[in-house]
Amino acid sequence: MSNNIDLKKGLNIPISGVAAQKTRKVIVPDVVAVKPTDFRSLKPRLLVREGDKVLAGSPVLADKETPDILFTSPVSGTVTEIVRGEKRKLLEVRIKADSEQEYLEFNVGKVNSLDGNQIKSLLMQSGLWPALIQRPYGIIANPAVKPKAIFVSAFSTAPLAPDPEYVLRDEFQNIQTGVNVLSRLTDGGVHISLNAANASGTPFHKIENAVFHTFSGKHPAGNVGVQIHHISPIMKGDTVWTVSPLMLAAIGKLFNTGRYDMSRIIAVTGPEAKEPAYVKGICGISMKDIADFCAGPAEETRFISGDVLTGTNAGQDGFLGFFDNQITLVKEGRTHELFGWAKPFRSKQFSMSHTYFSWLTPKKTYDMDTNLHGGPRAFVMSDVYSKVLPMDLYPVYLIKACLAGDIDKMEQFGIYEVLEEDLALCEYVCPSKIEIQSILSDGIALMMKEMA
Asked: Cα dist. 307→18, 203, 303 in Å?
């Protein structure tokens, strides 16, 4: 195992509502949704109509750019609704689940005898190819390109992140199969990053056919993009793939059972979660299925698919994302505090600086809400971003280059190495209330358009 990489910069957000390590319920979904919006730059082609019957693993969508890449149903049932937005943009395909699930069986054969092209074909037919994310830009991996390596982060430092050893406790045989399969798609190997705090105790360290790295530090030490930056930085012209342990397990299940099985253990977390814990479900479940976890009125609660920094505001009628196994419930911050900024004693507020006295109680957690405590203001030069970003980048200059649409400057300041999640903490600590992730997303979209 390589030497530990100790990251000195970062910030752990002390939000309350961590999930207790127990599974409170098994969710039998009534309706699930397949959402093209979970995938960056996807141009979906609809393959079903309302009223069509589907099996778990039946194709629902295809990628117009690469028609062999399919998006399949996580359940068997009936297509009940095609949801579209502005300009008829396809938002969701809703499927009413059968009481008894039926699976489309894929002919896998002997895993050890499959070559790279056969593996790619199975992943694309089954709907699991979109689990592979390509960097730069965070898009669905291009099957025509061989990546220099594949990277997996075996731990997460995001706020209230699910415990990977708990949610994947029965999946390590499938994870091993997933690693064996993906290692045939690259010459650079599968790189797995472990948390240095328990690297020798986690079952991940027993995975074979992988290259290991250990990291220590505060969030975002668990971000795969930060890890890649310190292991093998992405230069212009480089291509790497990433995959989460959750998706690695799903890939392994496909090759072990011949089924598209998207079942997962999901953490229900956050200050507004009543008895935060885990549930067993699948991707695409409705937020209504966890409504009994909500401590307050649903209309006053934000239902986030993912964590509070990078998750999607799904709404009380929304659905869990393809990549997510966490739901965070936080109160909508609609109140205003008169002269709040001038009060010296604010025991219920957290600050990364010594502005308040939260630094005297480092183990305390806070019932945070969505209140911004102020509005957008002038984008001032500050070193606050660099204190939470453990990467050799200049985030202020990168964001300003994105605002200006300056391709050369974006390349110079590291657009190839980052996604929104890597700069999420910069947005959280920003004194100007700048929507950094949105600006970076627009910059990435411009790069993809101009560099195509």
From this structure: 11, 24, 10
Place of tokens 């183990």: 363
Torsion angle of C-alpha atoms 382, 388, 389, 393, degrees rounded to 10 = 20
Are the C-beta atoms of residues 58 and 34 closer than 8 Å to each other?
Answer: no
Q: Would you say 21 and 278 are in contact if contact means Cβ atoms under 8 Å apart?
A: yes
Tens of pLDDT, residues 78-105: 999 999 999 999 999 999 999 999 999 9
Q: Is the dihedral of CA 202, 164, 26, 251 positive or negative?
A: negative
Q: Is 79 helix (H, G, I), strand (E, B) or coil?
A: strand
DSSP 29-52: -SEEEE-GGGSTT--EEE---TT-
- CA neighbor of 149 nearest in space, from 83, 217, 234: 234
Considering only CA atoms, which of 408, 386, 403, 405 is closest in space to residue 395?
386
Q: Give pLDDT tens digits for 265-318.
A: 999 999 999 999 999 999 999 999 999 999 999 999 999 999 999 999 999 999
Report H helices in 240-385.
Answer: 245-257
User: For residue 374, what are its two tokens?
Assistant: 């102020």
pTM score, whole prediction: 0.95
